[in-house]
């Protein structure tokens, strides 16, 4: 369903970040400084991916159920969850941007160069075929500072937008302002907790 897909979009990118942390690898006795490679962690990776989805889905459903009870809503769980899950979209987009920003800054340069010669025929259509790739844009203490702040800003902005979207959607379920506000309390708490989790992922030591 659409609800499961959107939750999977968020949980998968979250676990992709978690799976590279020293914390996650340490849980399974793996030395992060001697990373054995992705093939060696397929089992625990698959388990973690499934577990992350289950935990997020359970937390989301619990937040919806509690919110509906607080508001005294007559709407079914599927109706409320199917509508409010769209508030997850800004968070999922923010996580994808923040998580892959470093790769985009470096690999994006290769893409720009390739646009000038897409078929490797020696063309230089845009004058970028021979451009020098600056991998240092994502390396060093200076880059780490502005990258982390930019990633953190994207995540926080995504969560703030998600809260606004959720509130707007809640009004469609509960025209009475007080009930709409009550229904959003558990979901807002979940979003705040996920914001903290996302910032922790950015700050904690990780592989690669």
Structure description:
By secondary structure, the chain is an all-alpha fold. The chain has one domain. 73% of the residues lie in helices and 0% in strands. It has seven helices and no strands. The longest helix is centred in the C-terminal third of the chain and has 34 residues, at 140-173. The model has no long low-confidence stretch (mean pLDDT 88).
Which labels suit this protein?
single chain, 208 residues, mainly alpha, 7 helices, globular
Task: Give a brief outline of the structure.
With 208 residues, the chain is mainly alpha-helical. The protein has one domain. The protein has helices at 2-18, 22-27, 42-71, 77-84, 88-116, 140-173, 177-203.
- CA gyration radius, whole angstroms: 21 Å
Number of domains: 1
Q: Which geometry do the CA atoms define?
A: globular
Total beta strand runs: 0
The helix count comes to 7
SSE order, as H and E? HHHHHHH
Overall mean pLDDT score? 88
**What is the share of helical residues?**
over 70%
Low-confidence stretches: none
Largest sheet: none
- What fraction of residues sit in β-strands? under 5%
């Amino acid at each position: 369903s659409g609800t499961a897909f959107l939750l999977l979009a968020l949980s998968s990118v979250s676990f992709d970040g978690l799976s590279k942390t020293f914390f996650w690898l340490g849980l399974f006795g793996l030395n992060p400084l001697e990373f054995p490679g992705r093939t060696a962690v397929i089992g625990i990776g698959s388990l973690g991916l499934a577990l992350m989805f289950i935990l997020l889905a359970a937390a989301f459903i619990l937040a919806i159920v509690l919110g509906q009870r607080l508001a005294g809503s007559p709407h079914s769980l599927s109706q409320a969850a199917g509508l409010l899950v769209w508030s997850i979209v800004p968070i999922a987009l923010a996580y994808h941007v923040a998580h892959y920003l470093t790769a985009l800054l470096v690999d994006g340069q290769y893409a720009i160069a390739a646009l000038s010669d897409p078929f490797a025929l020696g063309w230089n259509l845009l004058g970028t075929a021979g451009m020098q790739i600056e991998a240092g844009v994502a390396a060093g203490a200076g880059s780490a500072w502005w990258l982390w702040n930019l990633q953190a800003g994207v995540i926080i902005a995504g969560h703030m937008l998600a809260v606004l979207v959720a509130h707007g959607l809640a009004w469609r379920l509960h025209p009475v302002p007080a009930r709409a506000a009550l229904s959003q309390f558990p979901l807002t708490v979940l979003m705040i907790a996920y914001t903290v989790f996302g910032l922790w992922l950015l700050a904690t030591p990780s592989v690669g």
